[in-house]
Amino acid sequence: MAFTLHGSSEFTCTRRVALIAKERNVPYRLITVDVKGGEHKQPAHLKHQPFGQVPYIIQEDGFELFESRAIGRYIATLGSGPELIPTEPKAHAKFEQAAGIEYAQFDPVANGIVKEKIYKPFFEVATDETKVQELTAQLESKLDGYETLLSKQKYLAGNEVTLADLFHLPYGSIVFEELGYGSLDKRLNVKRWWKDISSRPAWQAVKEGA
Ligand SMILES: N[C@@H](CCC(=O)N[C@@H](CS)C(=O)NCC(=O)O)C(=O)O
């Protein structure tokens, strides 16, 4: 069932949702929220996303959802395409472990770097370079953990790609590719994994605009 995606193609969390919709061949229409102009803090937006952030979706039947990962999990049950959330109990447990790695290990660091280097300048706020240095050191250490895991298996949850891998793409592409942080050349398994997931057609399409 088609949905409208309320967000901005420049923003990572909107891209995360668009990516999963493209992976699962679920049609959607992007309705751009003027984040720079503060539209996401207005009452009309807060009725749908009470924390004043993007994105949220509204389905044709009126069903609404916000939080990009929750939306991604929901969309993964719709449409057609690769099974992105394994259902067999042990495979599912490994998927939850991998999703936890993205959310608890990667996101705070990558999100912090992007906030400092991209979003603060976007909102005309000065970057805290000391904080960037701390975060990039943390990123290096986190990537050692990824290297250990990915030296034993193809993807974070096992040998099949899952949402947990794909959820890395919006922030990873900025941090690794645009900003050049995270020494992937020193970690060949992370490099292989990144090349694999970032070359997926769905992500290539989203990179050009959600
Ligand atoms: N956990 C939320 C985070 C949403 C979020 O941080 N959105 C950012 C853009 S990527 C935003 O709206 N920033 C503007 C603000 O917080 O004022 C999700 O995944 O949907």
Automatic annotation (TrEMBL):
Domain GST C-terminal: start-end pairs: 88-210
GO molecular function (one): glutathione transferase activity
GO-annotated cellular components: cytoplasm
Reaction equations catalysed: RX + glutathione = an S-substituted glutathione + a halide anion + H(+)
Transferase recorded as keyword: yes
GST N-terminal domain span: 1-83
Cross-referenced SUPFAM superfamilies: GST C-terminal domain-like, Thioredoxin-like
Top-level taxon of origin: Eukaryota
Annotated EC: 2.5.1.18
Record's keyword annotation contains Transferase: yes
A Pfam family of this chain: GST_C
Keywords: Transferase
Protein's GO biological process: glutathione metabolic process; response to toxic substance
Family: Belongs to the GST superfamily. Phi family.
Protein name stated in the entry: glutathione transferase
